[in-house]
Design goal:
523 residues; 3-stranded mixed beta sheet; 3 strands; 64% helix
């Protein structure tokens, strides 16, 4: 986590997730929380109280993951994703020789690290947790076998020999693990994954630093789903009342980019959206720098498009990458056409609002200006994804797209998807739903085919926090309404800039900081 944040003195180091180390860390967290509680009883300036709250939120979320969710024991990808070498290969923060020597140091620790994996991870895993672990192990093996060797021709002979030696050893270790997952873990998988109500409520409290009862959470989510679904059906009828919503969605996909111009077209689209933000005073764009639009690296091509911004403390390699996944040359023509239709211009425009302008990339530009080390050290899931999801709806409210009902429909379909995540997370972890129940819910309410609906449902079994896309958006919308009730003479840009200047703290804390302790409930 530190090296991805830009603190490169930690490069090439794998963590210690052995049972004794995890036990020590949980004790440390409890000591830190007691110290914070003592400090919080004092009269403190607002800025210091904000920092103290962020530290509390950071520690509470870590405690939740270690004690309630038990991620090191129940989610193999918790271990395996730490083996990623993407930032060493992609980010030019130091000469390639130095970065690949850090990769060699990391790979030399893989045998020890995977022994800890075997000592820590439960043998009886939830089926979906096992699937994630299997995917992560295969993905890391592919990165070491295929991605890393492509870079070795660009380094010195000594570095090349070193990396080849450690890489082959790490590959062998991962091959053994892949076999063990198949032979020893897979036969013991189970369907159970739910957190239960008490743990789920602790998750919400840790993420937001505000208690929200499950019943209230569900009430708000169901209401948002109903409202978005009604608007979705109304918009579909406006486009073509003779067609079903799925048929209307199909017509929207008939405006695909060309494979050879996908990256250039996306780059032009970002400029169009950026200019709209500035011309309509939506939010400050505090830099002339641009995110680099590039083809998604192979290891990450399960995603349609994604933002990879530099870490908060990165001092050299400050470029941000906007990944857009291209067609594969090896695909038959019909599959290439299907993918480009999925990436149609209307959907790609809405995705780009979420990922770049004014979503994640603009948020990153504001976070980079935050002076506080504490505020730059942590970002809440709900603030980060809630802001990006909020931007999709907010931009259309501000006239982006000139009232094009196709863009509105694409935005509403994404809102319905996030509503289904929200409700499925609660129902699967507190209400007895299976992931099959959630799959049918996604199909019926987000208008998804079986395969993407199943993928979304399974994600919620190991990522219960994915309700935070919608929950964060709704909390930001309520904060905005309450802010304008008290500040009638300010612009929307001023509200957005004030919010983003905080970094990405828990939203309950952001609300208290901006509106005071008597701010009322966050939903």
């Amino acid at each position: 986590m530190a090296t991805s944040a830009g603190l490169h003195r930690f490069d090439g180091r794998l963590p210690n997730y052995s049972p004794p180390a995890l036990k020590r860390r949980k004790a440390e967290i409890r000591r830190h929380l007691r110290a914070i509680d003592l400090l919080a009883k004092q009269e403190l300036p607002a800025a210091l109280r904000l920092e103290l709250g962020v530290l509390r939120g950071m520690l509470l979320m870590e405690r939740f993951k270690l004690e309630d969710q038990r991620e090191p024991q129940t989610l193999p990808s918790y271990f395996l994703f730490r083996l990623s070498i993407v930032n060493y290969l992609l980010r030019n923060y130091a000469p390639l020789d130095r970065r690949l020597r850090a990769v060699a140091r990391l790979q030399s620790q893989v045998p020890r690290y995977l022994q800890q994996f075997r000592a820590t991870v439960d043998r009886r895993l939830a089926d979906t947790h096992y699937e994630m672990g299997e995917m992560a192990a295969g993905g890391m093996l592919d990165a070491y076998q295929r991605e890393l060797p492509e870079h070795l021709a660009k380094v010195s002979a000594g570095t090349r020999r070193l990396v080849e030696r450690t890489n082959q050893a790490a590959i062998n270790e991962l091959k053994v693990l892949v076999h063990e997952l198949e032979s020893k873990f897979k036969p013991q998988i189970k369907p159970d994954f739910a957190l239960g109500t008490r743990k789920y409520e602790r998750m919400i409290r840790a993420e937001h630093l505000a208690p929200i009862p499950i019943d209230r959470l569900l009430e708000v989510g169901v209401a948002d789903l109903r409202a978005n679904k009604a608007q979705f059906l109304e918009t579909a009828a406006k486009i073509d009342a003779s067609k079903t919503p799925n048929q209307v969605i199909e017509t929207i996909s008939k405006d695909p980019p060309k494979a050879e111009t996908l990256i250039d077209d996306t780059r032009e689209m970002l400029e169009e959206i950026r200019e709209y933000l500035i011309d309509h005073d939506v939010v400050s764009v505090p830099s002339e720098e641009r995110a680099r639009v590039i083809e998604t690296p192979r290891f990450y091509r399960f995603a349609t498009a994604a933002m990879n911004s530099p870490g908060s403390f990165e001092k050299v390699a400050k470029e941000a990458f906007y990944y857009v996944t291209p067609v594969e040359d090896s695909w038959p023509p019909e599959k290439q056409e299907e993918w480009l239709r999925h990436l149609n211009y209307t959907s790609l425009r809405n995705i780009s609002v979420h990922e770049c302008y004014p979503g994640h990339y603009v948020h990153f530009l504001h976070r980079r200006r935050v002076k506080s080390t504490v505020l730059r050290s942590y970002y809440s899931y709900a603030f980060t994804e809630g802001w990006a999801h909020y931007c999709e709806e907010m931009m259309i409210e501000q006239g982006f797209g000139n009232g094009d009902p196709r863009l509105r429909m694409a935005q509403l379909q994404d809102a319905l998807l996030r509503d289904c995540r929200y409700i499925s997370s609660i129902r699967m972890h507190t209400g007895g739903w299976t992931w099959e129940d959630a799959t049918r819910f996604f199909m019926g309410n987000a208008f998804l085919d079986r395969l993407p609906a199943e993928r979304e449902a399974k994600r919620g079994t190991w990522d219960p926090e994915y309700l935070n896309y919608t929950l964060g958006k709704l909390m930001i919308k309520k904060l905005r309404a309450d802010w304008f009730a008290r500040h009638r003479d300010v612009s929307l840009r001023e509200f957005h800039d004030t919010l983003l200047a905080l970094g990405a703290p828990p939203l309950g804390l952001a609300r208290e900081h901006l509106l005071g302790s008597g701010a009322g409930p966050p939903l």
